[in-house]
Amino acid sequence: EMTPQGQFLSGYYSPDYDIYSESRLTLMSDLREALNKNQTQLYYQPKACMTSGEIVSLEALIRWHHPERGWVYPNDFIPLAEETGVITHITRWALEQGIADLAILLHDHPNLSVSINISARDLETNGLSDLIETTLNHYHVKADRLTIELTETAIMENPEIGLTVLERLADVGLRVSIDDFGSGYSSLSYLKQLPATEIKLDRSLVMDICSCESSKIIVETSINMAHGLGYKVVAEGVEDKETARLLQALNCDWLQGYWLCYPLPIEKLKPWLNGQPKLFED
Ligand code: C2E
Ligand code: MG
Ligand code: MG
Ligand code: MG
Fold first, then answer.
1. Which pLDDT value is given to residue 94?
2. What is the 3-state secondary structure (H, E, C) of 171-240?
3. What pLDDT does residue 64 have?
């Protein structure tokens, strides 16, 4: 049996590995429809300053409640959306929704910024920076309020295109964050040429720094090196106070994770921001 793309379905064929299997195509057309009807939502997870406790930024994360399947999480559809190209719809939708929400949030919290996740595939799309500029202008939001999160793997997939687009985004005045830093194979030396403003330490690096001395040394070294190169450092996936304390002692700038706050829909986030407890309150 051959797929429409001409791949031969051997005895080892597993539908899970065929991005064009019927159920996966249905999932993608459902997703397209949900995006068009605005049935997807952005949840926001705060990042706090380690020293002042101030909420500096919110990361926008897509949430999708499927009419029959219930909640479908990003890890179950983002990779497929990237392979099929549906990711460009997600990105367009997330930029529009995220910047519209940001414009509202800025009334009460003028120092806040929002970060949006962007995929490797988006970098190949012409006009990403134009789209962002147009949307920012439409909502009267300054470029430096918006951060683009891009994984190191996405950049390294095509470093030339990646660098060119990043430079354009930085020229527009956007902040750029290197997401999931330390999760891939990339060497530390490539950091010196990136027009980025912050480095996000991957959860896998951060999670066991209290129990594993070598993890602690890797994180400490990464923070010092990033600072030496002029980047701010965010730790993602911080789940307990001990880890937060240690990251503070290691001079990490910002923290994000369930310990501080789960990703929340904007109507729940607003009251949380107003009644936000102090970090490390004893
Ligand atoms: P990411 O950008 O690295 O986002 C962090 C993920 O870790 C989020 O998962 C977040 O909910 C989760 N997380 C936050 N704090 C903790 C913690 O303390 N412990 C643990 N175990 N997890 C924590 P989520 O929302 O399921 O998203 C997964 C990934 O999907 C994201 O990883 C990002 O790569 C992608 N993604 C999500 N939304 C979008 C989007 O709108 N566009 C694109 N292109 N990708 C997205
Ligand atoms: Mg991210
Ligand atoms: Mg991340
Ligand atoms: Mg991650």
1. 97
2. HHCCEEEEEEECCCCCCHHHHHHCCCCEEEECHHHHCCCCCCHHHHHHHHHHHHHHHHCCCEEEECCCCC
3. 97
* CB-based contact 219:14 (threshold 8 Å): no
Pick 282 or 92 by higher pLDDT.
Answer: 92
The distance between the two most distant Cα atoms of the chain, rounded to a whole number of Å, is: 64
User: Does the Cβ of 262 fall within 6 Å of ligand 1?
Assistant: no
**Of residues 84, 83, 62, the one with CA closest to residue 73:** 62
Q: Which residue is listed with tokens 């990339």?
A: 186
Q: What is residue 265's three-state secondary structure?
A: strand
Ligand 4 centroid distance, CA of 8 (Å): 34
The CB of 94 under 6 Å from ligand 1? The reply is: yes
Min mean pLDDT across 103-107, 164-168, 185-189, 278-282 is at 185-189
Query: Is residue 181 within 8 Å of 199, Cβ to Cβ?
Result: yes
Mean predicted confidence (pLDDT) in 200-217: 95
* Tokens found for residue 265: 């829909």
Q: Is 180 in the pocket of ligand 1 (CB under 6 A)?
A: yes
Q: Which atom of ligand 1 is nearest to the CA of 119?
A: 44
**CA 31 / ligand 3 centre spacing (Å):** 22
**Residue 5, pLDDT score:** 45
Burial class (CB in 10 A: 0-12, 13-18, 19+), 266: middle
What is the pLDDT, as a whole number, of residue 108?
A: 94
